[in-house]
Design a protein that fits this description.
Blueprint (H helix, E strand, L loop, with lengths): L1 E10 L2 E11 L4 E5 L6 H8 L7 E6 L2 E2 L5 H11 E4 L11 H11 L5 H13 L15 H13 L5 E5 L7 H17 L3 E5 L3 H4 L4 E6 L2 E2 L2
Parallel strand pairs: 3-8, 3-9, 6-7, 7-8
Antiparallel strand pairs: 1-2, 1-4, 4-5, 9-10
Helix pairs in contact: 3-5
């Protein structure tokens, strides 16, 4: 589904990613681990099409995404990719409910069945009573769960998550990972997650480790 070939990226003349080759199969649940500064977040931003590499290519289902126009890329992200940022990136002027519905409405995927699925997710992640609140009225863990539901709401083929449980307690961490494991298993959703947690990483079907911008063999 995703193939990265010889990916390199530098910031301020410091190479963050060095000749990364990585293939993620359709339906795989990949966990990416590594110390802070190892290039994990940069790598998934490139895999998700949010960041261009300095050199190398990323292919989605055989298509070179560097050749997509901005409109094509935006359409792909709205219709195929759910992304959970480490900073959540909720829109402060929208309620939790409207944040969750935003990609669904932009992608013209809202219907009764989608709303039922969203209701199930929000109930499972203890968000039902919080949907009318704004991000600044929510805790970090609550914002994180809203961001996760937003990413899953339209059943994307690919979900990419940057530290999806970083703001959660152990009980909610288990719930979130249970949801992700289930959609991976039942919907065959391809999942790529960055995590520092050994327990979280083991939920995936494969673990890779980044060190100094390279995949450790």
């Amino acid at each position: 589904m995703i193939k990265a070939v010889q990916i390199e990226k530098s910031y301020n003349n410091e190479k963050v990613l060095k000749s990364i080759d990585l293939t993620v199969e359709e339906g795989e649940f990949l966990s990416i681990m590594g110390e802070s500064g190892s290039g994990k977040s940069t790598l998934i931003s490139i895999l998700g099409g949010f960041l261009q590499p300095d050199c190398g290519k990323v292919f989605w289902n055989g298509q070179d995404i560097s050749k997509f126009s901005q409109n094509q890329m935006a359409e792909m992200r709205c219709s195929r990719v759910g992304f959970v940022f480490q900073s959540f990136k909720l829109i402060s002027t929208l309620t939790a409910k409207d944040n969750i519905l935003l990609p669904v409405t932009l992608g013209k995927k809202y219907n009764e069945q989608t709303q039922k699925y969203i209701d199930e997710l929000t109930k499972e992640l203890n968000l039902t009573e919080l949907l009318d609140k704004y991000p600044d009225q929510l805790s970090g863990g609550q914002c994180q769960r809203v961001a996760i539901v937003r990413a899953l709401a339209y059943k994307p083929k690919l979900v990419i998550l940057d530290e999806p449980t970083g703001a959660l307690d152990s009980v909610m961490e288990q719930k979130v990972m249970g949801v992700l494991s289930r959609i991976n298993r039942e919907l065959k959703t391809t999942i790529i997650q960055v995590t520092h947690s050994q327990n979280v990483s083991k939920v995936g079907s494969r673990i890779i480790v980044l060190k100094d911008g390279q995949i450790q063999q």
